[in-house]
Amino acid sequence: MNLHSMRAARSTEAWLSAFPFGEELSRRGADLLRGAIGARSYPAGAVLLEAGQSCEEALLVTRGTIRVYTTSPCGREITLYLVSEKEMCLFGVSCLLSDTRYPARAVAKVDTEALGIPAPAFRRLFREEPPVQRFVLDAFSSRLLSVTRLVEDVAFLRLEERLAEFLRKEAIRDTGGTCLVPLSHEEIAAHLGTAREVVSRLLSQMESDGRVRLERRKVRFNDSNGSRPAHPAMAPAMNPVKGSPEGFP
User: Fold this and answer.
1) How far is the C-alpha of 33 from the C-alpha of 55, rounded, in Å?
2) What is the rounded distance in angstroms from the CA atom of residue 89 to the CA atom of residue 121?
3) 67 forms bridges with which residues in the sheet?
4) What is the pLDDT of residues 12-26, one digit of tens each?
5) Cβ atoms within 10 A of the Cβ of 79, count?
6) Which of 239, 177, 171, 182 is nearest to 211 (CA)?
7) CA distances from 192 to 82, 157, 196, 209, 219 (A)
């Protein structure tokens, strides 16, 4: 075995272990996966799948994030879910297993790396390997809960509450101890399924109340209430502190 082959073999073994079910496969299943997987790389903004497109392979994200969203006839977007590290796009898996068309649009939110399993190999793995079946069913269960939560939020929460929760989830803590959301008003509106003007108006009101500070393509705040409640009915009442970014809803 030459040096290139040795490196390729080590890389393949690392790819195999990246799958949550990789170490539980039978020898035949592991050999099938080992021979089928390939590395994929997508720059931020790259379109992975369009609505109506057929799915040729199952993708497991190893680095980065894929955004799955749908668009209304008037061009308004809403994020259905994000596919993060160690996750697969369940719409893609569903379409691949049922031989149907992709119902949404999948785009790399940031520079993203993934491992691809061609459709024939994945169908065989799902048919023959219980660890793959458990992984897919557990993933479907988790994703169903998250999409159900999205429907509840859209149906029952005011947009200001949804905006506040979205900012918390997207926030990055910077060195100054505050939270930073590096998104434009238009990008935030696309995630929430509303118009940029509506988001700008709500953020301006939050800034007037001292709950956030708006910067160019950024929203900054101090999250004094901790993480998101488990259910909308448990959400704490808003208690902004005037003149300060404290008291973010």
Assistant:
1) 18
2) 17
3) 82, 107
4) 777 888 888 988 999
5) 17
6) 239
7) 13, 12, 10, 22, 16
Tokens linked to 69: 């969203």
Question: From edge to edge, which strands make up the β-sheet containing 47-49?
Answer: 47-49, 105-108, 66-71, 77-83
Tokens, residue 38: 């390939």
What is the distance of C-alpha 232 from the center of its chain? 21
How far is it, in rounded angstroms, from Cα 34 to Cα 16? Answer: 6
* CA–CA gap between residue 80 and residue 52 (Å, rounded): 16
Strand order in the sheet with 172-173: 172-173, 179-181, 218-221, 213-215
pLDDT in tens, 93-116: 999 999 899 999 999 999 999 999
pTM: 0.70
Give which of 43, 82, 78 is closest to 65, Cα–Cα.
82
C-alpha–C-alpha distance, residues 170 and 187, integer Å: 12
Q: Determine the Cα–Cα distance for residues 73 and 241; give it in Å rounded to an integer.
A: 40
Q: What 8-state DSSP symbol labels residue 55?
A: P
Tokens 């879910």 correspond to what residue?
A: 81
Task: Give me the sign of the Cα torsion angle 151, 239, 212, 200.
Answer: positive
